[in-house]
Amino acid sequence: MKTEIIEILKRSQLSATESRAAILALFQEAGTALTHADIEKKTGALFDRVTIYRTLQTFVEKGIIHTIPTADNAILYALCKDNCSEGNHHDNHIHFICDNCSTTYCLDHINIPEIKLPKGFFISGTDILVNGICKNCNDN
Amino acid sequence: MKTEIIEILKRSQLSATESRAAILALFQEAGTALTHADIEKKTGALFDRVTIYRTLQTFVEKGIIHTIPTADNAILYALCKDNCSEGNHHDNHIHFICDNCSTTYCLDHINIPEIKLPKGFFISGTDILVNGICKNCNDN
DNA sequence: AATAGTTTGCAACTAAGTTGCAAATAATTT
DNA sequence: AAATTATTTGCAACTTAGTTGCAAACTATT
After folding, report:
1. What is the distance in angstroms measured between the alpha-carbon CA of B60 and the sugar C1' of C26?
2. How far apart (Å, rounded) are the C-alpha atoms in residues A82 and B114?
3. pLDDT band at residue A2 under the 50/70/90 scheme
4. Which structural domains are found in chain B, ordered by start?
5. Angstrom distances, CA of residue A62 to CA of A15, A59, B65
6. Which bases along strand C come within 7 Å of a protein CB atom?
7. pLDDT tens string A60-76
8. Average pLDDT over residues B92-108
9. Helix, strand or coil for residue A78?
10. Which of A139, B105, B108, B127 is the most buried (most CB within 10 A)?
11. Distance (Å) from CA A96 to C1' D2?
12. B14-25: per-residue pLDDT in tens?
């Protein structure tokens, strides 16, 4: 277990267990968003289905990862950047989903444009989903 | 069965059946987005679960309704406006989901802002999800 | 090293969604 | 308007996704 990963878990007041470390490492290596199924595949039979569900849930609660809404209704999870904290998710992200390879990127550094709503509506958060062809698929 | 509803179905080359007409009417009355569960509740035991699934699927294919991605992973369906046609959905919508009452509105007439992506990424469509408090909840 | 607190895996369950097929309904033809 | 054809529906059975309770295993604390 990498000390860096243990640090992250401790910082969120979570005990450093095999499964948590492994799943967190997966996210760091991938760099993109993952589904529950992705993680189940990549970890093989190492951990129980239920453990993966619970780990993802805990990570979301602690602000380590966040969920991404998708059109095809598969829940995607991705690492939060430092500005994400407990109870404060989903806001102001731009997510890019490749039509070709389905890889999902968090584009945290892109400015989100201002959206004007009709009278009577007040905004608390915005999620922007962009579809298209990703850098990787374009280069090949 | 209203003739207007029959018209809509015929226009999409669908035979006008009880279930289709009833479900389409539901959407028109609601004016907001509905989930499969909403429809199952509102129609009672009138139609089989499977029929509702298939009807929604058909409506999406024919461009009568479109799906809305949500953070909590419940598939929402809403009536398409006239500019929506078969095979051409999801693009350039703004959807507003109320934090309080969970009602979902399609804000079709709001301009979607331009989004600039990093080099190598090309956009084919955009889905914007806005959370907040809706007009209705604010007035009360 | 022993104890207290947390997490995991298992089993069993609920909920969501899909598929094949015979019966019922809608559209078409005569 | 009756008969034929094509489409749609409901049922049953199934797969997949997600949840819950609880004893055993593991982490953290003393």
Report:
1. 21
2. 26
3. confident
4. 3-139 (1.10.10.10)
5. 12, 5, 37
6. 6-12, 16-20, 25-27
7. 999 999 999 887 778 89
8. 86
9. strand
10. B127
11. 58
12. 999 999 999 999
Total residues found in chain A within this entry = 140
Question: Tokens representing B99?
Answer: 């934090």
Which residue, among B97, B8, B68, B108, has the nearest Cα to B23 in the 3D structure? B8
- Within 10 angstroms of residue B44's Cβ, the number of other Cβ atoms is 7
The neighbouring-strand residues paired with B65 are B79
Q: What is the pLDDT of residue B26?
A: 97
The highest-confidence range among A63-72, B44-53, B69-78, by mean pLDDT, is B44-53
Contact B96, B110 (CB under 8 A): no
Listed as ranges, the nucleotides of chain D within 7 A of a protein C-beta are: 7-12, 17-21, 26-28
Tokens, residue A17:
């267990």
User: Would you state the pLDDT for residue B85?
Assistant: 46
* Single-letter residue type at B37: A
Structure tokens at A76: 């995607």
